[in-house]
Fold:
Amino acid sequence: MTGRTDVAKENDLVLLIGRDRKRFILRLTSGAQLQTHRGVIYHDDIIGRPLGREITSHLDYPFLVLEPSTHDLILDLERTTQIMYPKDIGYVLLKMNIKPGSRVVEAGTGSGGLTLALARAVMPTGRVYSYEVRPDVLRLAAKNLDKLGLLPFVELKERDIGEGFDEVDADALFLDLRTPWLYLAQARAALKSGGFFGALLPTANQVVQLIGALPDHGFDAIEVEELLLRPYKAVPARLRPADRMVAHTGYLIFARKVERVPAPEADEGQGTPSEGIETRKGE
Structure:
């Protein structure tokens, strides 16, 4: 039984969902208990038993026991700053080819929402290098990542990226900053040739600034995208959109670092292609 991956073990993270859809994420500890509005749940009632089943609190209220997803973990983060929404994070992982073994640079750690997802994507052989200038915010991100066992895959650095990144030949780099166009030279120096660049910005004016600056710093294949998420009420008798949707949370900007061959200089005296060509206008 201990070899089964669907069996809850001590120190595992589990997700509890009540019939009222209230959610709790906890790390299992022998002898511990969780106090909820629907009664006490004893960790020992979960440890050693299969996931995907119901347990009951001491008030006989049922909870479903599941393995939490990355989406669940992001929404459960302790935070003092706005985090990227899971709908944007998931798309970033796909667009920037983040996979096990990738080396990814991030600036603007915040509370660690994107960092969490990057770490889970690159593990066990990859690495995330995350930069943040605010020490209190960085401490919270470290706490969040440590709680989830992800710190071994992340290097947190308290630094202004205007000084540059330590990394070179990174596979991907993401900027979650107010003025990313000011740091494109640093981003280019950190990326491998053909590497993936990404950024998140809240306003169109900022996007214009960034996409105008990207070509001047050796980036091409520029894309600007926005994701809108509409959940539905999953009731067979009255399936319809939920009253609220996750609409504009920011613009996603993607590009690739490229190496361009300088245009050949014209031979002296040859002039430009249009020189010496007479037109018939006015004849």
About this structure: The helical segments are 70-75, 86-95, 113-122, 135-147, 184-190, 204-213. The mean pLDDT is 92. Residues 88 and 94 are 10 Å apart (CA to CA). The first helix runs from residue 70 to 75.
